């Protein structure tokens, strides 16, 4: 009898810590196990064992108070991960998610899952370095709490939806390194000020940069390697506080002579465009300029002497129409 009781107690002691320490919400656990199944039990999710507390599993985090899953971050550092297939619809059934990330998963395919719109608490959505394809969906504008939207390095195509400007809390928008086409939406001028950092480089965006972008003031704007035409001076201006602007390798053609520059600029890259006129003397007042490149344009006249302009290499100025003066050869 004593032995049986002892055995009972021992079993109780062995099992109970587990039973009592299960913090994970059973609904969340069920959803996570469904996600694992939909991905065909990939090695990456091997720790998702139904007999253990899901708050302890890899790739997830629980809120310390509610114990609901608030973060799902599936990323691989090894290239041969066998996690494959589309984003499972069941990700939309983790209603407390604030962070959702799929990163470096080359076999993640298919479109961006519409059930994501159910995740109304989402602040951080990242799907990057995957083979997710199809459009950048309009429905992402429903995620009104989003602060970071990163869809870079995928196989996304089609236009940029103008509805994204309705995201009032957005701090950073990354759509770079996809196959996006068409113009930058005019609506991007109505982002809540100052406007998110914009990373749209390495796509096939075309047409003029909308004049409405004069109304926003992002810290960082990256538009390089597209087919954008015409003016880009609305991205500059004395009153802005932009620090990094890269519009290199486009088809931009405008007169640089009268452009005013934010004194906050740290890096300005205009290389490989059709920009004409002179380099304005105002640039000598940009005290913290560390990166500067106007090579491969149609600029002319003397490089203003002063400020940081003579600290840059010849390669920052080469291949223009008739630029001259230090660091290039003297003007005739
Ligand atoms: C992925 O790898 C794990 C462990 O190597 C294996 O158990 C699982 O069946 C594999 N899944 C697929 C879809 O190949
Ligand atoms: C997409 O898949 C191709 C091969 O199917 C692969 O070479 C490429 O690296 C993948 N892209 C990403 C970003 O993982
Ligand atoms: C990229 O998407 C296109 C369809 O938009 C598809 O034909 C192609 O196979 C995809 N590439 C990869 C590597 O998945
Ligand atoms: C810059 O700001 C000043 C004062 O805040 C204002 O008077 C001026 O019109 C602004 N200039 C531009 C180009 O917006
Ligand atoms: C400027 O851009 C050109 C063209 O891409 C490049 O060859 C050169 O190295 C760049 N110079 C600097 C200083 O970044």
From TrEMBL:
| Cell compartments where the protein resides | Cell envelope
Residue span of the signal peptide, if any?
1-21
Q: Record keywords: Signal included?
A: yes
**Keywords on record:** Leucine-rich repeat, Repeat, Signal
Ranges for domain Leucine-rich repeat-containing N-terminal plant-type come to 26-63
Respond yes or no to whether keyword Repeat is given for this record: yes
Q: Name one Pfam family in it.
A: LRRNT_2
InterPro entries cross-referenced by the UniProt entry: Leu-rich_rpt, LRR_dom_sf, LRR_N_plant-typ, PGIP
Question: Per the database entry, which stretches of residues form a coiled coil?
Answer: none
Main location as per UniProt:
other
Q: What family does the Swiss-Prot or TrEMBL record give for this protein?
A: Belongs to the polygalacturonase-inhibiting protein family.
- Could you identify this protein by its name? Leucine-rich repeat-containing N-terminal plant-type domain-containing protein
Organism of this sequence: Clitoria ternatea (Butterfly pea)
């Amino acid at each position: 009898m004593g032995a049986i009781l002892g055995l009972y107690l021992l079993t109780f002691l062995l099992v109970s810590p587990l039973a009592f320490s299960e913090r994970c919400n059973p609904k969340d656990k069920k959803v996570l196990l469904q996600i694992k199944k939909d991905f065909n039990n990939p090695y990456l999710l091997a720790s998702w064992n139904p007999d253990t507390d899901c708050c302890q599993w890899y790739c997830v985090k629980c809120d310390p108070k509610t114990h609901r899953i608030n973060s799902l971050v599936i990323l691989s550092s090894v290239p041969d991960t066998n996690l494959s297939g589309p984003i499972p619809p069941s990700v939309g059934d983790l209603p407390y998610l604030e962070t959702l990330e799929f990163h470096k998963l080359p076999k993640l395919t298919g479109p961006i899952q519409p059930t994501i719109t159910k995740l109304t608490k989402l602040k951080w959505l990242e799907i990057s370095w995957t083979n997710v394809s199809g459009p950048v969906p309009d429905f992402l504008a429903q995620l009104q709490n989003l602060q970071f939207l990163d869809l870079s390095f995928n196989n996304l195509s089609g236009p940029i939806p103008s509805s994204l400007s309705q995201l009032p809390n957005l701090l950073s928008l990354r759509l770079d390194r996809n196959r996006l086409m068409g113009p930058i939406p005019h609506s991007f001028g109505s982002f809540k000020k100052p406007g998110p950092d914009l990373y749209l480089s390495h796509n096939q965006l075309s047409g003029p940069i909308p004049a409405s972008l004069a109304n926003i003031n992002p810290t960082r704007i990256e538009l390089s390697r597209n087919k954008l035409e015409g003016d880009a001076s609305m991205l500059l201006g004395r009153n802005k506080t932009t620090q990094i602007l890269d519009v290199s390798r486009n088809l931009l053609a405008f007169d640089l002579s009268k452009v005013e520059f934010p004194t906050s600029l740290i890096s300005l890259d205009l290389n490989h465009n059709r920009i004409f006129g002179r380099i304005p003397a105002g640039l000598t007042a940009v005290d913290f300029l560390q990166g500067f490149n106007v090579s491969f344009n149609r600029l002319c006249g003397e490089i203003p002497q002063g400020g940081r302009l003579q600290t840059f290499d010849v390669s920052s100025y080469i291949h223009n129409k008739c630029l001259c003066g230090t660091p290039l050869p003297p003007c005739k």
